[in-house]
Design brief:
single chain; 475 residues; seven-stranded antiparallel sheet; six-stranded parallel sheet; 16 helices; 19 strands; elongated
Length: 475
Amino acid sequence: MDAISNNLILNADSYKASHFLQYPPHTTRVSSYIESRGGKWDCAVFFGLQMALIEYLCKPITKQDIDEAGEFWKEHGLPFNRQGWEYILKKHDGFLPLKIEAVAEGSVVPNRNVLVQIVNTDPECFWLTSYVETILVRAAWYPTTVCTNSFMCKANILESLRRTSDNADATAGFKLHDFGFRGVSSFESAALGAAAHLVNFLGTDTVAGILAARKYYGEKMAGYSIPAAEHSTITAWGEGNGEDAAYANMLDNFAKPGKTVAVVSDSYDIFNAVSKLWGGKLKQKILDSGATVVIRTDSGEPSQVAPKVIELLMEKFGYSVNLKGYKLLPSCIRVIQSEGLNVDTMKTILDQLERRKLSTENINFGMGGGLLQTFDRDTLRFAMKCSAIEIDGKWKDVSKSPVTDRQKHSKKGRLALVKGKKGEYGTIRLEELKPGQENLLKTVFENGKVTKKYSFAEIRKNANQGLEEMLLGRK
């Protein structure tokens, strides 16, 4: 679907149109910040702002945009700041006079710390800081939340691998595959969320995320996939001998030396398929192929079905015991669990495997809605708040502190993000920065231009560093 509107002036909540009349007299600058105020996890893996800056804020407004917005707001019942927008068009060639600072993408930052800071650069446009809140909060909360979810999955998987596998770090990157393309609300959501997942993993079937990583971060191929069956390509052959023929057809077409193919095997009886077909009639065909065949389970209680399938395969194909003392299938056969998964149910499966002395190396995971869709802005309680205002040339603290909810208390002043000698993050007032102390908020956008871009490799490096620090802290 094409964009409903490319008019930046209309990319805002309705009430924003009236806010230019609501600030104190002689206001010249407004400084606001974005943070995660807590929620499901105690940290956030910051990602995605660069996409929004390029897509929305680098495009100048036009006279046509102003005229369209003026007509819209009038009919919608709100005042329109025509003078302000025409000033931006005339004085700044339509580019927004804003300065945006942010922590490096991929950074793993404890909650209740500043992630983004925004201030107007032209005193005549004090109202503009808050006007872009709708774009910036949306740009921050969704990809960051998905990236954090994927990151937490990776933390659990990698911990389990390191306890149960001799090849933990070599296999972790492909352990969680993104199956969420059809389960999200839009193509854009798929692009943002799937790109966020690819910060942590390399496997995806959500093409939109690869395209987003290519367009906004210059990563030519951020994710990979393999040939795989769906239920229709299996059930089309019919039950009984048809199921056998369907699996054999998959092997004939895709099971080549060094290749991997996944076959959904629960269309009828997953246990029969494993014992009598994969481990029976087709066993030698698999062994001779030189490929890795991944058996996909797609129904039943995941924490029970997945371990049972692995154990049935071990009865048929044998197993070795690795140096950690855990059982491992031969490399020609693996399992993928892709039904009913989220970060919590995945942890349950991992725990069950370990209790049965089954290496996590035996299993991969596929996740759809639990990876990309089952979140909202309150999952990590994202918000943008004004923290300082300049009136008559003097900065003044601004904050909110509702007695009914301490979580909603906001920060005061112009802010900086710092990191201590032990690696701990902290948000301080800008004037509290000591000589030589680094402010981790870097200018990423100024007056219509992205001033600092992150490559996907840099973002992955930042996230991996944060992951190792977090796992070290868990020990």
